Amino acid sequence: MEQGGKTVYGAAVGILMLETQFPRIHGDMGNALTWDFPVHYRVVRGATPDLVVRNDPTQLVDLFIEAGRDLVAMGCDGITTNCGFLALIQDQVKAALGVPVATSSLMQVPMVQALLPTGKRVGVLTISKETLTRAHLRAAGAPEDTPVGGTDGLRCFTRDILGDAAAIDFEACRLDMIDGARALVADNPDLGAIVLECTNMVPYARDLRRVTGLPVFSIHSFVTWFQAGLMPRRYDLELDDPRW
Predict the structure, then answer these.
(1) Which of 26, 41, 98, 231 pairs as cysteine with 12 (C-beta 3.0–4.6 A)?
(2) Residue 44 parent element (H or E)
(3) What is the pLDDT of residues 23-34, one digit of tens each?
(4) Residue 46 carries which DSSP code?
(5) What domains are defined for the chain?
(6) pLDDT of 81-111, one tens digit each?
(7) Partners of 17 in beta bridges
(8) CB-CB neighbours of 62 under 10 Å
(9) pTM of the model
(10) Residue 83 in contact with residue 198, Cβ under 8 Å?
């Protein structure tokens, strides 16, 4: 006999979204076509990119917990968010929701570091190097001396995402991402991989891999891994043998 307890079935991951209006292209976490599996979304009203990235997101933790509880009640088995700076509320949210929580792409840094050969380090590319602090890295379990580069002060990526622009030049954003990654690598020749803090950076991960030659990890790689644990794929137990 099947057990109930949920409202909606078949989507394990719930995504807590900041309140925004800017366009979200394929690859962006907030574009549902980005995912190869169903997801739930819930907007955290009042949580804007500027408040979360340039101010103190811990002041908004109750809003995230309330929205997260709605997602869990809906049927989610795990919760994530669409801003890497929310690593600062990881412990509070997971304690309140009672399900696995993966607030930040930055949580991949120690995982990726474990893969790299001796002498190589993980670098982080963020939307705001100016405000990504040791506290964010520490909350994500990353070394506090992790090299960090940003798209601050370039053409438009940081300005338009944090400013919640109604229209965005995504080709110019791509160039910002490439310039930011190249500068990060130039400043840190011992890098062995890059982790993208910002969930809006996913569409450019392949470009960064091409221009830097380094593996690039993003919220997409993190949530895909998360989904694989929450809802493991079913496999046929029979041999795939053409004679059968």
Answers:
(1) 231
(2) strand 39-44
(3) 999 999 999 999
(4) T
(5) 13-104+224-230 (3.40.50.1860), 105-218 (3.40.50.1860)
(6) 999 999 999 999 999 999 999 999 999 999 9
(7) 43
(8) 12
(9) 0.94
(10) yes
